[in-house]
Amino acid sequence: MEEPLPPMEAIDLIQQQISILIRRSESERTAQQDTNRLDRSAYLMLGFLVNEGTLTVGQLAEFLQLDISTASRQVRALEDKGLIARTPDPRDGRISRVDLTEEGRQRFLAAKTSRLRRYRQLLSDWSAQDLTQLGAYLVRLNQAYYESIRYSHKQLDEREEPGR
Amino acid sequence: MEEPLPPMEAIDLIQQQISILIRRSESERTAQQDTNRLDRSAYLMLGFLVNEGTLTVGQLAEFLQLDISTASRQVRALEDKGLIARTPDPRDGRISRVDLTEEGRQRFLAAKTSRLRRYRQLLSDWSAQDLTQLGAYLVRLNQAYYESIRYSHKQLDEREEPGR
DNA sequence: TATTTCGGTTGTATAATACATATATTGTCT
DNA sequence: AGACAATATATGTATTATACAACCGAAATA
To answer: Which of B22, B1, B18, B20 is nearest to B10 (CA)?
Structure first.
């Protein structure tokens, strides 16, 4: 009852379609002339700041699954554009606290509006039911990815301190 | 009437989750030590050749939504690795016909098996029903993207020859 | 036959990324 | 307190994937 049909074909399809989805999204990256556009990492970074409030560079790297050096450069790029501001943590001089500027918040919202318009048009003939369901599936899928990554990190940590 | 419930939240969620999905997939690109691994474009390119048979460089570029120069370089890279072979078209000296080698076919299948294993583990607690449904949604989503791109190209063409 | 179009390649530039190393601050141990 | 280790971030360097522009040779067309 739990596997009425062998789901391997479905998994194959999912895997293939995700590859295609990702490939296409890369091709959109450069092709955009939308002035509101923010590249994906910038968009996600600002989005995390909108949702989470102040974060450190390291936390951003962790959320975005970026090397901290990459996160650091992105933070600086956004700072140069005036979208975020760094302030030193008063308690710990090593830490930079990263905040949105008002400009950053507005740019994020503008970009989000743009994206939503695009997606709304793209998905215009989907039923509300299907949209909700797809959203839920994607959340679940991302969650699964996230857990599998956490798990492998955990294993790594344990390996590094075996006699703990 | 066209929006019985406000699906904006669902669309927002979808858009956000796709961003996350894509970001994560990029972080996997470099992190892999899987020897069977093929980078995404190579994987898709070989996959198209498996499914479609012989293709030209231009067709590959079109399928992959790559600039033809990029496709050309990728073809050469795969040729250098012995995974594909180019033969000149006997009827039209400009065209290179791109084919899989036996080695290429096997590498593709190995990579596919690897991917499937990973996805099967990732999705192990999904019901067959959900897997099938997610696959269908992804196909539909990619199809929508594809059509919207075709549409915008068509408009562009019409703009270029206005008095047609 | 001269010109244009077409398929593909090569030159060049850019962006996003990771890894190794450096720097400065904080924590810890004797 | 002083020395050393750990931590948070930044910088140097290399790689990779990509696009655009310029080019080349073959084919189509005027």
So the answer is: B18
Residue A160: pLDDT band (50, 70, 90) is very low
Q: How many domains does chain B have?
A: 2
Q: Are residues B48 and B79 in the same domain?
A: yes
Q: Model-level pTM?
A: 0.83
- Whether residues A113 and A41 fall in one domain: yes
Chain-chain contact of A18 with B23 (C-beta, under 8 angstroms): no
Residue A54's CATH number:
1.10.10.10
Whether B134 and B96 share a structural domain: no
Q: Average pLDDT of B137-160? A: 71
Protein CA A70 to sugar C1' D12 (Å):
13
**CA–CA distance, B123 with B129 (Å, rounded to integer):** 12
Verify that B92 and B146 share a domain, yes or no: no
Q: Which of A51-60, B4-13, B101-110, B136-145 has the lowest mean pLDDT?
A: B4-13
**pLDDT band for position B159 (cuts 50, 70, 90):** very low
Share of chain A above pLDDT 70, in %: 82
- Relative to beta strand B84-88, strand A55-56 is unpaired
Provide the angle, in degrees to the nearest 10, between the axes of the packed helices B68-80 and B40-52: 90
Contact A141/B at CB under 8 A: yes
Residue B109 near chain A (CB below 8 Å): no
SS (H, E, C) A53-101: CCEEHHHHHHHHCCCHHHHHHHHHHHHHCCCEEEEECCCCCCCEEEEEC
Mean pLDDT of B71-77: 96
Is there a single domain that holds both residue A71 and residue A43? yes
Domain of B118?
Answer: 36-123
Estimate in Å the CA B87 to C1' C3 gap, whole number: 29
B43 or B32, higher pLDDT: B43
